[in-house]
Structure formats: C-alpha cells, structure tokens
Design goal:
With about 525 residues, this protein is an alpha/beta fold. It has a nine-stranded mixed beta sheet with strand order 2-1-10-9-11-12-13-14-15, sandwiched between helices. Strands 6-5-3-4-7-8-18 form a seven-stranded mixed beta sheet, with helices on both faces. Strands 16, 17, 19, 20 and 21 form a five-stranded antiparallel beta sheet that branches. Strand 1 and strand 2 form a beta hairpin. The protein is globular. About 50% of the residues are buried.
Length: about 525
C-alpha cells in the first residue's frame, strides 16, 4: 500500500531516529572493513553534522552537497543535512573540477561536505565559481574539529512531508543531467511499496551495493531500505571491481546484492567466478540499464542466485517495475510495483494494445516536484499525476513489461522501426563479446543506419581463434538478424564510454562515430 505520511515528517527521523526510539540503538547499522557502526552511533554522528552545518551558516531549505566516498560519514552528513531541514545534493567525489564548478553554480549550495583525499578538485572548482559553497573538509584539523566539537544532541527541523529533501539527477545518456527535486514523502513511499512489499527487506538482511551511495538506486537499496527495518548496510570507499566485490561478499556475507548489468557482466566473466561462494545471498537486484536475457542466463548458470531486474527513474526516485522473488522472467522488467500505475501510450496519449510498443508513463506516491530551473522540461515530463518518460516498452497480457529502449534510441531503418537492444542481444551471444552497444548514425544522405560498438573478452581481444574480429562479428549477426537490423559497421573498443551514473553514453558513441 502507498505510504501515508504524518505531518510534520522528516526522513532522518523516519529512517534513523525511529530505530533508536524503538530500542534498536545497539543494532548494527553500517558495516565496513574496519568495524561496525550502531544505530545510536550513527544518530549521534548525524546530530553532530546537523549542529556543524547550522554553525557553518546553513539554513533550512538551502542545499548541502555531500561529496564523500562510501564511508559512515556519508550517511551521517546526509542525515545531518536532512535533520536541520536542508536539502541534500549527493555528488560523485571523483568528479573533475569543471563538473564540480557547474554543480556549484547550478545548485547554489551553501555548504559542501568533502574529504581531504578528494579535496583538490573541489577546492579548485570553488576558486573558479562565483558562488562557491563553504567547504567542510573531513580529514583536516579544521574540518574534523567542526564536527567532533559539535553537540551529540539535535532537535530535528519540523519538515513538511512535501518539503524538498534530496535532489537526484536524471540519468539520461545524452546531455547534462537535470536536478530532480524529491520530497521527504517520496523516499518513505517507495520504501514501503518496493523494499518491504516486493523485496521483503527484514531485520536480519545485510545489503551490499555495486553503485555508490550518491546514486539514488543505492541511496535507497543500500541505506534507506535496510535502515527502515533495522537491518545493516556494507559500505566501502574503494572503486567497485569484481575482485573487490567478491572480497566484500566473503568478508560480510550479505543477503542482498544491489547490482547493475555492467558488474553482472564483469562478475560472470571473472576467471575465478565459479570458485566464488555466493550462497549467503538470498537475492540480487539489477537496475540502471537493461539486463540482456543472455547475460541473465550466464549469471544463473554461474552463481545460481535469483536476479531481479527492474526499472526506476530519478523522477519517481527508485524502482517501480520489478520482477518478483520466485517469479523471475529473464529478459523482462517484471510487473508494476503495488502502489504504482504504469501505462504505455502512443504519441496522442492513448494506451497501446498488449504487445505493442508504447511510451511509458507512471504515477504513484514518489512523483518528483520537477526539474530545478528547467520549466519547459518539467511541463513536458510531469503532467498532472503522471510522469511521462522517454522509455519505450511493451507489456504482455500478464502485465509483464519488456524494455525496448529510449524513444530517441529507437531506429527507423529502411522504413522500419526496431530497437537496438535486439542487435545488442545478438552480439552478446557471440562467445568473444563482453559488451555491446548499438546506436543510429546519420549518413551523408540523411539516412539512419545502425552501428555497433563492441568490447571483447580478454581471450577475444587476444586474438583467440579466428572468430573474434569484425568480419566474424558481421558474419555472426548476418546469420541471425534481418538485413535492416544488422550493424553497418562494428567498432571494437577497449571500453564503452559511461555517463555520470555508469550507463553507456550513447551520445558519446554517436559523436565519436560522426567524427570518424
């Protein structure tokens, strides 16, 4: 059932302080390689941050950047900002100074909490910005003293459930991301509908996430969701690799793995994959980008852990379409999460028939308030109770959705429409292909043709056999795809370009192809 918030309502109180009031203060909230943090300790640290931010001049409703790696001070700083009524803006601590300067100017944040290990880019960006935030640099004497000398006690700001709580950023694969304004109620709603209602988060769960906490998918699945039920989350600051992930699993024995297709691919391709013990996992989720059925099958064959693909957007905060435990259908996204309504419509807003491709629109209690300083985009995307996305999908008679691509990604070749995913899936069936992306490239005569960008496995890149070159890949798709769906060119790359959220940057692929 959708969440009905009380008023006032503050999610720092809801996700953290409520657990302490329930007598769970000594339960483990966070797990790291070096030790654990209890709910009571996390609450006390968050109170220190709230007091420190107030002392630094932050006022309710102003923005606070959280640019920390995945360490316990990340959730403490985020909850501290929320406690004092500020709006949290989570950013990747590895962003370069140019992107950070844009972030300062766009958000007009009053303060930014960062760590000394990542400070140079933040400091340089501040020098070039007309409205830089006050930087609180942890790991320095001044920054540590500001937090450590602040009071352990704090009376939370009386936020309204519809007050802005956190800005997320649209995860589109082209263009500069837009700030998506989400309220306190949105985060609690999806926690009830998806985390508890579909995945069944429970107090004994231990979560481990591939994406870092600044990504809304992880903010939910590896922080808010476990804290909502008294469970615990594993945090590690290192960049996520298959080796690092396997080590964290061996150390902490999580029950839920928060995954993405790129890492699913790297895990199953790891030379020691079959030697890994993943028996602690009761399930893994996948989101962020489509999960090919071929890759899903490889995961099942290698690890035997139930993998639930789903779809979420920053505009609805988190997952609202998902496969269900015990009812997984590889190659599909599953069905709508209870509490959300999903419709597929044509360009005139009429619902399409079962099996036909339509543009997705969704409504429910986690609808964002709009895009910051993008009024035209807000008017087009948010229409009444509905968010109208650029995602194109089909739905079968059982209500199960299949992803067909973004509206801008569908290709019309030789007068016929098709989804690049079909060609990508075909390429992934070739034994030497590790990753594949197909985009439409406009020719000199104005026609659109599909071109493929492929990353080979180590053996394929090493020239193992005679079936790993471009000619062999062309022959592979020629045997399996209709002529208009076959990539006219296949480019072999060392890696695919990625967006700030780790998705394949199709815009960069198009630009690169146009320049060759």
């Amino acid at each position: 059932m959708p969440f009905v918030p009380r008023n006032p309502f503050n999610i720092a109180d809801h996700f953290l302080d409520d657990r302490v009031r329930e007598g769970l203060g000594e339960r483990i909230a966070l797990r790291t390689w070096d030790g654990t943090v209890t709910y009571a300790a996390l609450q006390a640290r968050a109170n220190r941050f709230a007091n420190a931010l107030e002392a630094a001049g932050v006022r309710p409703e102003e923005r606070v950047l959280v640019g920390l790696p995945d360490v316990p001070d990340f959730p403490a700083a985020l909850f501290g900002a929320l406690k004092m009524g500020a709006v949290g803006v989570m950013v990747n601590c590895y962003l370069g100074q140019r992107r950070l300067r844009d972030m300062y100017d766009y958000t007009r944040a009053t303060a930014a909490v960062i760590h000394a290990d990542h400070a140079p880019a933040f400091l340089e960006a501040a020098r070039g910005s007309p409205n830089p935030p006050r930087l609180i640099v942890l790991g320095t004497p001044d920054g540590d003293a500001l937090i450590d000398n602040s009071s352990l006690h704090y009376v939370n700001f009386t936020s309204h459930f519809d007050d802005p709580a956190i800005w997320l950023f649209s995860g589109g694969t082209t263009g500069r991301p837009k700030g998506v304004i989400q309220s306190h109620a949105s985060f609690a709603n999806t926690t009830e509908c998806y985390a508890k209602g579909v995945l069944g988060y429970a107090p004994d769960d231990i979560t481990l996430s591939v994406p870092k906490l600044y990504f809304g998918y992880a903010t939910g699945s590896n922080l808010f969701f476990p804290l909502a039920v008294g469970a615990s989350a594993v945090l590690f600051p290192e960049r996520c690799t298959a080796d690092e992930l396997f080590a964290q699993i061996a150390r902490h024995r999580p029950t839920i793995l928060v995954n993405v297709p790129t890492m699913v691919n790297r895990m199953v391709a790891h030379p020691d994959a079959n030697a890994q013990d993943l028996s602690c996992l009761r399930l893994s989720t996948s989101a962020g980008e489509p999960l090919p059925a071929t890759l899903h099958q490889r995961w099942d064959d290698t690890f035997g852990v139930e993998l639930l693909d789903g779809l979420g957007t920053a505009e609805m905060w988190h997952v609202f379409i998902s496969n269900r435990p015990g009812e997984v259908r590889p190659g599909t996204l599953g069905t709508a999460v209870p509490g959300f309504e999903v419709a597929l419509c044509d360009d005139d807003g009429n619902e399409v028939e079962s099996g036909e491709v339509g543009r997705m629109r969704v409504r429910g209690g986690s609808l964002a308030q709009g895009y910051w300083q993008h009024p035209e985009a807000t008017r087009h995307a948010f229409v009444g109770e509905w968010y109208i996305s650029g995602d194109m999908m089909t739905r079968d008679p059982d209500g199960c959705f299949s992803y067909e691509g973004r509206a801008d990604d569908l290709l019309k070749v030789s007068g016929k429409w098709f989804s690049p995913r079909e060609a990508e899936e075909c390429l992934l069936q070739q034994r030497h292909v590790k990753e594949a992306a197909v985009v439409g490239i406009e020719t000199e005569d104005g026609l659109t043709v599909p071109e493929a960008f492929v990353v080979l496995t180590a053996r394929g890149a090493g020239g193992d056999g005679d079936d790993s070159g471009e000619a062999a890949l062309h022959a592979h798709v020629a045997d399996r795809l209709e002529s208009y769906k076959r990539p006219r060119a296949i480019h072999i790359l060392a890696d695919l370009p990625r967006t700030h959220l780790g998705k394949v940057d199709r815009g960069a692929l198009k630009r690169g192809a146009a320049q060759t």
